[in-house]
Amino acid sequence: MTSSPREHSGLWVAVASFVLWGLMPLYWHLLKSVPSLQIVAHRVVWSALLVLAWLLWKQGRGWLRAALERPRAAWMLALSGTLIGFNWSLYIWAVNAGHVVESSLGYFINPLLNVVLGVAFLHERLRPVQWVSVALAAVGVVWLTVQFGQPPWIAICLALSFALYGLLRKLLAIDAVAGLGVENLYLLLPALVVVMWGETHGQGGFLPLGGAGWGAGADALLILGGALTALPLIGFAYAVRRVPLSAVGLLQYIAPTLQFLCGVFVFHEAFDTDRLVGFAFIWVGLLIFACEGWWRLRRPAVPVTA
User: How far is residue 82's CA from residue 184's CA, in Å, rounded to a whole number?
Assistant: First the structure.
């Protein structure tokens, strides 16, 4: 079966989005001289400006009212905005503190954690093969905990915050870009406070309001970081309407794979045999999970007889 032009374009947009997410450690590493909290604050500010401009252009001034008319939208988007802000903050800190490999582990765990949350909150039932996948991932996390004396907290917090974020957005069922716009509005004022506090207390350096400045290159990277935050999300929203979810589910592993490769081969982070064993359990669980899901979606439907 050949794909339609609509599916073909959606597929390439999805690939581009996941590749961009996967290579983001390289980008944030260029801003290593900027305090992580300032990077996050600028990321929110510039992402908000881009997303809000997009929404005003595409949907007009009534987009916010339409988004918040949904029941529970105001408080759920406030909570999801807090979760994604925490996720961004921890991820940027982890990248610039030399924990890219562990960060990638969080996004490998995330799909399986989504399944667990589906059981806990949406009353979904797991098939036996899915339980095997979750169990293998749990064994991998326990192995890493025993070998290194503590759980991989960065990976667990990244996976949990993003999985809870996804659960809230699924329960609300709002347009991806409009939801991101409301979340950014909630985060915008705190982000502006952080930016201005940094500029007036010796931790800023933008344009150069806070002293010597970080340099024009860092300023440009901070502004562009807002676009690199919003564009993959917009691209993802575009793609999921055109590409089968089974394909999107497999493509999502592009991002943590590229993050992992960046950590090992670009930043030369430690990845010894003990880490390999723990990761291997999780990778095998993911492989079983992905293959079983793909097989069930691709097999022909059984005709119903009277």
Answer: 10
Evaluate whether 39 touches 222 at the Cβ level (below 8 Å).
yes
DSSP H helices, 123-215, are 128-148, 153-172, 176-200
Residue 138 dihedral angles phi and psi, to the nearest 5°: -65, -40
Domain boundaries, the chain: 5-298
Cβ-in-10-Å burial (0-12, 13-18, 19+) of 80 comes to buried
Closest CA to 158 of 88, 228, 220: 88
Longest alpha-carbon distance in the chain: 79
Q: What is the pLDDT of residues 125-183, one digit of tens each?
A: 878 888 898 899 899 999 999 888 889 999 999 999 988 998 898 888 888 889 999 99
* Four-CA torsion 298, 295, 251, 273, nearest 10 degrees: -170
For residue 188 the two structure tokens come to: 């915008």
The encoded tokens of residue 206 equal 């933008």
Report which residue type is found at 123. Answer: H
- Cα(240)–Cα(245) distance, integer angstroms: 7
Alpha carbon 89 to its chain's center: 12
Query: What does the alpha-carbon distance between residue 278 and residue 256 come to, in Å, rounded to a whole number?
Result: 16
Q: What is the pLDDT of residue 125?
A: 81
* 0.70 exceeded by pTM: yes
